[in-house]
Amino acid sequence: MTNMGRLIARPYRASRIGWTALCVWLRYKIPAWWDLLLRRDPKARDLSAVHQKNADHIFDTAVSLRGMLVKMCQIIGTRSDIFPREFVATLSKCHDRLPPREFDVIKQVIEEDFGADLDSVYSEFEPTPTAAASLAQVHRARLLSGERVAVKVQYPDIEHIMHTDFATSRRIAVIYSRFDDNPMDFLPLLDELQKHLRMELDFRREVESADRIREFFVDDPSVHVPKIVRQHSTRRVITMEFVDGVKVNDPAALAAAGIDTKNLMTRLMSIFNRMILAYGFFHADPHPGNIFVNPSESGKPVFTLLDFGLAKELPDGFGMGLFELMFSMMTFNESAMLRAFKELGFKTQDDDNDETLLLIAKRMMSRSDTGTFQGEFTEEMTDEMFDAIRENPVVKVPTDFVLVARAFSLLSGIGHALGQRANALDAMGPAPA
């Protein structure tokens, strides 16, 4: 984008974001003012329709403006502890399938970062991308050595867009805090989003995450992480081994490929158990597009993990705390449950409100088929848990727990598509034969 284009785009983006924020705020405030005027109990009003209308408006604005707003919506869609479930369900589907940028723009980024002509690095480079996202797009290519690769290239103006969007969002958050009697403090959330997105914009971090997780499974032939071609990877470009496969949630395609689906979810859950409980570093975005499956010579499935932009380091002791929480909920050992919640970082307003934490667990388990926790964090159970968190005086929910719960929920959705269960406790046993 030229300097003139940036000057024109900045006020347009700011005005669109500002108008969306004003509409969202007024949809909540006008009915509240009427409640006050007519002396009605505001708690008696069902807000689900308003939540959905606002979520749809934010979604439409993000898809229209693209860039950082799409990624921000995806991250907000992971924060079930803060936002209503209508927001989470709608914004988490703010997919990265967007119109691609022109090939000349992508070529310029590669040549700037490599300091060389495209032809001196790749013998072939397909100008039409295989995927286009909010931050980057992916092209098939071939190295001079003949190796087939996938090349992920960041858009050149994305940092400028991020600066504009965050500056606008911060101004809106400050204004909101001055005009609302009981404001939600959005500034810490914006700071967290900005920190996360700045890390995601540096592709070198994604390369390090991929290499680290590959090392975890170096002796496990059932897990494949594409090899990174480091000499052709930079802050804005990743060149990696080209891989293909069947999406993990497509039972018909898995059968057609001759992949043995027996115990498929137990095998997959075992992989994530190892990352979360044993290694303390995990792939936090296991949606079906990021997991391919291929058959091995033995007939057992080989899982390929893709896209490590949302890989996450967990604090010391997190894995043990999570295991204790799951086991205590299964046996309904209240003292162990409370200890696990606190070890994981949950806190209440008075620091001694044990009943609130127990209520959260009970609400969560009430949505299981048996009324007890059986080792699977289903979407219904996690939704119920975060509803209880929003309705009770829990003032600190660890982000790490939110991401892990979301990951287990995504894996549960994959399991249901296959007619299987994503049971984290079952997957702790010996590997299926």
Describe the structure.
The protein has helices at residues 3-38, 48-65, 68-76, 85-91, 103-114, 158-179, 187-201, 203-216, 251-256, 264-279, 318-331, 334-344, 354-365, 379-391, 399-417; strands at residues 122-125, 131-132, 136-143, 148-154, 223-224, 237-241, 246-247, 281-283, 291-295, 301-305, 311-313, 347-348, 394-396. The chain has 433 residues and is α+β, with helices and mostly antiparallel strands. The strands form four sheets. Strands 1, 2, 3, 4 and 6 form a five-stranded antiparallel β-sheet that branches. A four-stranded mixed β-sheet has the order 5-10-9-7, covered by helices on one side. A two-stranded antiparallel sheet has the order 8-11. The longest helix has 36 residues, at 3-38. The chain starts with a helix and ends in a 16-residue tail after the last helix.
